[in-house]
């Protein structure tokens, strides 16, 4: 049997009528950039997040640095995050011109460990960028407390957890802005690149709308800015898909529960942890080999058996060759949990359109590998 890592085409087939209708509507409207479909999708997205504003931008990386820039954060400022996220989180901090400061992650959730943040704060610290990694929210209540105490801004990198929530909080509620990515593999993904930013602050909304459009909100009137807009064709695809996001996340949760039930007796891997009261939306279902040196063998065993397992992310940002490429960066304290995560992670296939026999096959193969370990 072959089990793919993504189900993009299955998803398109299931929703083809709605997606094609929206694409037709855009094509026949004659308005493809900053047109009515983008406006409609932005309103739908803000409603979904229960935020006052949502602004579509070119991609999830741009959404982060545009947010930093809209908050006036740049050269000479420090921004705290963790090094076992996708590279783009740190990249965005550097694009904004700021210093990336890395602290360790929580060993259970792999999200930033709030207990490690305060030691990294200096007079130059301006913001924290927690990442809701793999589909589970970082501890925003603790992060918000620290931010308030030290007068810091918080930008949630929510590229991976659209539709998740924490115990007693929602995404976008305890921060200055939440950003997301719509690259195809995300829980809400388009057929290409896209991103957005959600906020309750009119000033951030206004600044981002100008920054994304060559510093302009009126024809021929410009200030310093960029070209980073979500185009209307992507907005149309996303508008059709947004209606399904909760049902799709429920399916992800269903498959993750099936993985967890099937793998619970494995002795050589650790399974993902869902914190009590949290809604984890399993962008990724990531297991870790108890012995990091055995990770590559598990990955190869699965790949050889037709299971397209992958790693997210097997090289922590500070361990990449050439780090930090002349950019400003600091690491505060040991980041051994993040390094262990990088060394031991294996992502099993996870998408809403999986089938029970595919999940069961993956479970059987992981168990077979586990049993063969001394
Ligand atoms: C955690 C995280 N942050 C940022 C990004 C960047 O998004 P994009 O690829 O749309 O620029 C991604 C995904 O690609 C991501 O997973």
Could you write a compact summary of the structure shown?
With about 375 residues, the protein is of the alpha/beta class.
Instruction: Give me the number of helical elements.
Output: 12
Uncertain segments of ≥5 residues (pLDDT<50)? Answer: none
Class inferred from helices and paired strands: alpha/beta
Instruction: Outline the biggest β-sheet.
Output: 8 strands, mixed
How does this structure look, described?
By secondary structure, this protein is an alpha/beta fold. Helices cover 38% and strands 13% of the residues. It contains twelve helices and 13 strands. The strands form three sheets. The protein has an eight-stranded mixed sheet with strand order 1-9-8-5-4-2-3-12, with helices on both faces. Strands 10-11-13 form a three-stranded antiparallel sheet. Strands 6-7 form a two-stranded antiparallel sheet. Helix 2 packs antiparallel against helix 8, helix 3 (36-49) runs parallel beside helix 8 and helix 9 (245-263) packs parallel to helix 12. It is globular, with a radius of gyration of 21 Å. The model has no long low-confidence stretch (mean pLDDT 98).
Topology:
Elements: H1 8-14, H2 16-29, H3 36-49, E1 53-57, H4 60-70, E2 78-81, H5 87-95, E3 99-102, E4 125-128, H6 140-150, E5 153-157, E6 165-166, E7 169-170, E8 177-181, E9 195-199, H7 202-211, H8 232-242, H9 245-263, E10 269-270, E11 285-289, H10 295-304, E12 329-331, H11 336-344, E13 345-348, H12 356-372
Parallel strand pairs: 2-3, 2-4, 3-12, 4-5, 5-8
Antiparallel strand pairs: 1-9, 6-7, 8-9, 10-11, 11-13
Helix pairs in contact: 2-8, 3-8, 4-5, 9-12
This protein binds pyridoxal-5'-phosphate.
């Amino acid at each position: 049997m072959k089990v793919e890592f993504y189900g993009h085409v299955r998803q398109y087939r299931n929703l083809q009528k709605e997606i094609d209708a929206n694409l037709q509507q855009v094509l026949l409207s004659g308005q493809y950039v900053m047109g009515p479909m983008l406006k409609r999708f932005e309103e739908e997205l803000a409603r979904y997040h229960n935020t006052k504003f949502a602004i579509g931008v070119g991609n999830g990386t741009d959404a982060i640095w545009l947010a930093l820039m809209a908050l006036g954060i740049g050269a000479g400022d420090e921004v705290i995050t963790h090094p076992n996220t996708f590279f783009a989180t740190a990249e965005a901090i550097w694009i904004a011109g700021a210093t990336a400061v890395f602290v360790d992650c929580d060993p259970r959730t792999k999200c930033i460990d709030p207990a490690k943040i305060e030691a990294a704060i200096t007079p130059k610290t301006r913001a924290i960028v927690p990442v809701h990694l793999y589909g589970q929210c970082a501890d925003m209540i603790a992060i918000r407390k620290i931010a308030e105490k030290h007068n810091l801004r918080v930008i949630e990198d929510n590229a991976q957890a659209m539709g998740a929530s924490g115990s007693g909080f929602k995404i976008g509620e305890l921060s200055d802005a939440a950003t997301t990515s719509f690259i195809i593999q995300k829980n809400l993904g388009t057929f290409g690149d896209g991103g957005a930013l959600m906020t309750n602050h009119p000033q951030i909304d206004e600044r981002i709308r100008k920054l994304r459009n060559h510093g302009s909100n009126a024809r021929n009137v410009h200030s310093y800015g960029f070209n980073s807009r979500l185009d209307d064709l992507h907005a149309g695809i996303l508008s059709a898909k947004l209606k399904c996001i909760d049902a799709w996340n429920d399916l992800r949760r269903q498959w993750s529960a099936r993985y967890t039930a099937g793998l619970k007796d494995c002795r050589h891997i650790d399974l993902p942890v869902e914190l009590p009261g949290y809604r984890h939306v399993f962008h990724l279902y990531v297991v870790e080999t108890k012995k990091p040196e055995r990770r590559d063998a598990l990955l190869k065993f699965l790949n050889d058996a037709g299971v397209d397992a992958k790693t997210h992310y097997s090289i922590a940002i500070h361990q990449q060759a050439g780090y930090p490429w002349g950019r400003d960066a600091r690491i505060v304290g040991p980041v051994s949990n993040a390094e262990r995560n990088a060394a031991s992670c294996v992502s099993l296939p996870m998408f809403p359109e999986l089938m029970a026999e595919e999940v069961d096959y993956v479970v059987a193969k992981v168990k077979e590998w586990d049993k063969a370990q001394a």
